[in-house]
């Protein structure tokens, strides 16, 4: 075997230090990078325009308006933090915030638990199961106007089915949406009925991601149905539960259509949630600066609640 076959001769190409690229080659590489960057920017431009036109610009404009006195007629006049100082002493704003918190306390746990139970019940391979799941999803795609008509047939004090059921058990009839004490719980029940199908689908996806070997091992160990739900299902969907809680909390803090269509904040402002109060300040009283300040306070509140939930999830969410 010759040195040529083994390629062990000194001074071969692999032993030499790489020569620096020629100026002509470096210029060609720069032109190719600029060309690729231009095409990348062109393909990303629809989303960049969406961010600037529909997100960044409105956010910056609302922050500016929150520091001004603006009524849609006169030009905005800068007043600093006066709108935020006014919020601190606005009893109607704090009342709307309390109604929103009460609505969230009733809505989020009820929807999360009911959606999980429905998903567990429908996570089976039976004939017609897809049709049954679709039935639960129909209220999700229905408008709040349609849902309001359905709710009126149930909770109307005169001919509603809810009072007919109470009458069967000898209980007094209720005014439901016309009662200051019952309007928020009734709204929460209707909201759960409308939204539980969506959360059920999310839980179904989480349940089907749990390895079946875990249920088989639990069954071999003699675990009953409740123990499998407690020690296999719930830890397995803890990440999904966290997502559902986050989405439900944000939904309740931004609730507007339901209250606007069903009660318009009544009776006597008992169901006036924060976003409805913001809408009235901005589009009925034309206090656009004040409404923008309310929007920013609500945004910061949602951000703080989300960060708190992210911090707490480390204690109970399992991602393995």
Produce a short descriptive summary.
This protein is mainly alpha-helical. The protein has a domain at 93-287 and 307-314: MetI-like fold (Orthogonal Bundle).
Give a written overview of the molecule.
- It comes from Jiangella mangrovi.
- It is a multi-pass membrane protein.
- This protein is mainly alpha-helical.
- The chain has a domain at 93-287 and 307-314: MetI-like fold (Orthogonal Bundle), CATH 1.10.3720.10.
- It is built from 14 helices and two strands.
- Strands 1-2 form a two-stranded antiparallel ribbon.
- A hairpin with a 7-residue loop joins β1 (68-69) and β2 (77-78).
- α11 packs antiparallel against α14.
- The longest helix has 44 residues, at 23-66.
The CATH architecture of the domain at 93-287 and 307-314: Orthogonal Bundle
CATH topology of the domain at 93-287 and 307-314: MetI-like fold
- CATH homologous superfamily descriptor of the domain at 93-287 and 307-314: MetI-like
The percentage helix is 55-70%
- Percentage of residues in strands: under 5%
Order of helices and strands: HHEEHHHHHHHHHHHH
Which term fits the overall shape?
Answer: flat
Terminal Cα span: 57 Å
Give the low-pLDDT segments: 1-8
What's the CATH class label of the domain at 93-287 and 307-314? Mainly Alpha
Order of neighbouring strands in the sheet with most strands:
1-2
Pfam families: BPD_transp_1
Region (Disordered): 1-31
Subcellular location: Cell membrane
Protein name: Multiple sugar transport system permease protein
